Amino acid sequence: SFLDRVRLTEPVLRSFLHVAESHVLEEARLLDRRIENGESLGPLAGVFVGVKDNICTADMPSTGGSRILEGYRVAYDATAVRKIRELGGIVVGKTNLDEFGMGSTTEGSGYQVTANPWDVSRVPGGSSGGSAAAVSARQCVVALGSDTGGSVRQPASFCGVVGLKPTYGRVSRYGLMAYASSLDVIGCFGSSVLDTAILLGAISGFDRLDATSSKRGVPDFTSELNPVSILGAKPLEGLRVGIIRETLDGGVDPAVVGVIKSAASHLEDLGCIVNEVSLPSFALGLPAYYILASSESSSNLSRYDGVRYGSQAIADDLNALYGDSRAKGLGSEVKMRILMGTYALSAGYYDAYYKRAQQVRTIIQKSFKAALDENDILISPATPSAAYKIGEKKNDPLAMYAGDVTTVNVNLAGLPALVVPSGFVDGGSSGLPVGLQMIGAAFDEEKILKVGHIFE
Ligand code: GLN
Fold this sequence. Notes:
- By secondary structure, the chain is of the alpha/beta class.
- The protein has a single domain (1-456), classed as Amidase signature (AS) domain (Amidase signature (AS) enzymes, Alpha-Beta Complex), CATH 3.90.1300.
- The chain contains 14 helices and 11 strands.
- The protein has helices spanning 2-13, 21-36, 79-86, 129-136, 153-159, 193-203, 254-269, 285-300, 318-329, 332-345, 351-374, 397-402, 408-413, 445-455, and strands spanning 16-19, 48-52, 90-95, 142-146, 162-165, 186-190, 240-244, 273-277, 377-381, 417-425, 432-439.
- Strands 1-3-2-4-6-5-10-11-9-7-8 form an 11-stranded mixed β-sheet, with helices on both faces.
- Strand 2 (48-52), helix 3 and strand 3 form a beta-alpha-beta unit.
- The relative contact order is 0.14.
């Protein structure tokens, strides 16, 4: 029935770059046989999982949304994918994204543009727009994305689903195509907080194949997600919630602020103590992020030289081969980031840009730490606006980058953050969803999941 739904909706949504029909049917038959034999099944048995196409899968193409990897096959599964499969999950296919994760709309995919299921003339967000649209349209139950600067949370908000960016190090990055390695994390999409928590539990944990993965134990992320049954009780009594002042004005749509303020008063009704908290360095996050992410990407993407991976241009000498392969295979946004990053890292500019951005990063980390010493969680809008029209910001990269203002700080600080649908603003035929972002202390995903679960 999921495959039928994919067939029906995919011509309009274009969430997937690859749907593994025969693999899915084979897995389903295998599952049937195991049920008949009375075998015990894993907790994800039969669950349809979408996987962002910058996450490697051994039996399907992995393009990262880039033409330079057209037809490229990897010999192994990413650790997160391997774990999902070991628990019985079925990978339905590879979802669309902005090339190598660089973008906020999926318009930057080298292959196709995904539509937002709430209004198909709008973007689903990005870069994990395919995963968000797929979960939103129930083409799959849950999906993996990656979040370097908001690429799980922003599309979750635009598509009205739950999105979780785990703490840096919680989930192995082995098999995730590197964009900006100090910021990249694999994240989860679900149509409920419970589904999202189950997926997080499945993929978390130390992995010797990723030197930055954490040795911390993995709790049962679902253990605190109990249904609230006592009417009139205040299930979040005394929980200190800081609403980030800097996200309530400036470029944020007043209608979005309205939704977030009513979410805050709903949290108060549930027993929370909500106060405004100021993070004075907040506005520095965006420029620091774009310098650091571009710098790291300029180094990471040097591996796509037409020799080691993917498609190769025909050329007379080696330099021309590198140059032509990259000129043909990489899209314009990716080239712009490589140029920006190379510039920021070059002698004479390094101190003025890269080093300063690293210093800003430290200041941001400290200010989050202070705010989270005073508060149990922080909240903000997930995005400054609801989903906008396809094409609206395509030729205005700075306007697109500005939309990341609410998300990038969390990556710079390495913290976990959950986005849950919290209301609607005008737009489309049925209104457009807006997500509430809940930020927790490092490795305290349990708390934001608990609050998110009661809130939803
Ligand atoms: N939109 C941001 C960027 O283009 C975030 C991307 C991401 O998280 N992968 O860098």
